[in-house]
Amino acid sequence: MEVWFTERQTDAVSIGLKVKAVLWRERTPYQELAVVDTEAYGRTLVLDGAIQTTERDEYVYHEMIAQVPLAVHPHPRRVAVIGGGDGGAIREILRHPEVEEAHLVEIDERVVEVAQRFFPEIAVGLTDDRTRLHFTDGIAWAREARDFDVILVDSTDPVGPAQGLFTPDFYRTLYEALAPDGIMVAQSESPFLQPELLRQIVQGVRQHFPITRVYLATIPTYPSGLWSFTWGSKRQDPEAVPEMVGEWAQSLRYWTPAVHRAAFCLPPFVQELIDA
Question: Which residues are CB-neighbours of 82 under 8 A, at least 6 positions away?
Answer without folding.
Answer: 105, 138, 141, 142, 151, 152, 153, 154, 155, 165
